[in-house]
Amino acid sequence: MTDLITLAIGLALAGVLSGFLAGLFGIGGGAILVPILITAFPLLGVDAAITAHMAVGTSLAIIIPTAFRSYIVHRKKGAGNAEMLRDWAIWVPLGVIIASFIVGYVSGDVLRVVFAAVALVIAVKMLFNRANWVFARDLPPRPVTNGVGFGIGFLSTFMGIGGGNLNNLFMTSFGQSIHQAVATSAGLGILISIPATVGYIYAGWGHPDLPVGSLGYVNLLAAALVVPFSMLAAPWGARVAHAMPARRLEIVFGLFLLVVIARMVADVVM
Predict the structure, then answer these.
(1) Average pLDDT of each block of 10 consecutive residues along the chain (270 residues)?
(2) Transmembrane segments in this chain: where (predicted)?
(3) Residue span of the structural domain in which 260 resides
(4) What is the number of domains present in the chain?
């Protein structure tokens, strides 16, 4: 009983942290939730073969309300590229849907490695960013941007994130401010998390080793515990983001990703 209480408190704290980070970086919170859930699910008796899948699927479900709450706060401050999000309303979910059909055949270690590799590229960009590390001063034309949206949706489904990590890299590489990128990423989390959650439910439906309270690879009990705390903390993170200088926000984001990468690598090696 003590272990379960400790686990519940840990998940609640994870909700607070993930919600704050969702608002601060526009990342949906998956970058912190996935490693925590990978650690927590074995304590609930989840089979090791599906632990990573359960962590990613549950993380995506938690992102839905958190990303919505974060985006609303950012929009009130006049930030976010609403036009690009409208263009991505088809392309991002399409990438998510295709990835969802594949994810059930991919091992948990592959999910971890994809997560760590992509996060490392983004961390290097954020930590050592230079003025000349920009491809252009404006976003590319719509066909290219739509292709990027498809790719972000596809990769984010494997990583269990709301796409903010990838979109922040994309937009800042084309001359957009980190504040604008973060606000847009919060909206992107909504486009990704809804179809991705449905995809993970489908991919795990009927699996014989699912824990109690699960719909496919989404555990509703864990989500119900984390979501209220993440939604409470998301506006706080968004306000801090707009008060922080752009370069400092980039550095903090990069350092955060390095911590997450180290945790993921440890999971694979051990």
Answers:
(1) 68 80 68 78 82 87 84 82 91 89 74 75 76 77 92 79 78 86 86 87 89 89 86 81 77 80 68
(2) 6-38, 50-68, 88-105, 110-128, 148-170, 182-203, 215-237, 249-266
(3) 2-269
(4) 1
